[in-house]
Amino acid sequence: MSSAIAIICILCMVGGPAFLNIIAYPVSYKWSLAISDYIVNVLAHRLFVVLNCYKKFHFFAYREMDKELPEQFLVISNHQSLLDIPAYMNYFHNWKTLRFVAKDTLSRHIPLVSEMLRTQEHCMVPRKAKPMEAMKYMEKFGKRCAARNQCPVLFPEGTRTRTGQVGKFYSAGFRKLAESTGLPVVVCALDGGWELRDLMKIMSNLKNGSYRVKVLKIYENPKTKEEQQLILDESKVLIQAQLDEWRKKPSNIR
User: Fold this and answer.
1) What is the mean pLDDT of each run of 10 residues along the chain (254 residues)?
2) What does pTM read for this prediction?
3) What is the rounded distance in angstroms from the CA atom of residue 76 to the CA atom of residue 62?
4) DSSP 40
5) Alpha-carbon distance 225 to 240, whole Å?
6) Rounded distance, CA 107 to CA 146, Å?
7) Which phi and psi angles does 25 have, rounded to 5°?
8) 165 with 79: CB under 8 angstroms?
9) How many CB atoms lie within 10 A of CB 51?
């Protein structure tokens, strides 16, 4: 019964804004942007509130390093599920303006998500883009974020993990964003999404499950390829170590 109530609440919560944004997007950028901002600033947070209320699903935000964060920065993180995006929106709720790098398949035909991503000008990289073309998307995106005081978020793995283990970190996109933004780099770890990657996993793991997000380390903007690669290598190790530590405890314990 609790699962049905949670699903009904979520559908009621997101259905109206999703429908309105589908209508507003081709008609008025101003209206679509207002709806998209509501989705990010309000609904992302409420999603986890509803899940906690009806399924005892916990969102653990570790904030030991919050006071050390610079005004603007580039986030790199491991990647586990589509819920990673609302998880980071919830973590930085009403605090930082985030913009994500994602495949352009997310910008079409996904209610609530697609219009929001396009209207807010997240970086939608075409799946079949050639490397040079993809880097042009990233460079333009990075410069736009830097000018607008936005924090770009990059998942260097490039795809979602199926096992929960951290995969290979690819360097090209990170290098282009580091160069085009000139921003400090904030390494974050998240965990929980890989256990919710499909409907069967959601039904079995949602109750008493959790999502965890934590800032692990802050680097100055890397000036050379060697510095960039060092950050990627160290961050992969730091993130995997944090995941290993979290998984020693029950999912409903902070």
Assistant:
1) 75 92 95 96 93 89 95 97 93 94 89 93 90 93 97 94 90 96 98 77 75 97 96 97 94 81
2) 0.93
3) 16
4) I
5) 23
6) 22
7) -55, -50
8) no
9) 22
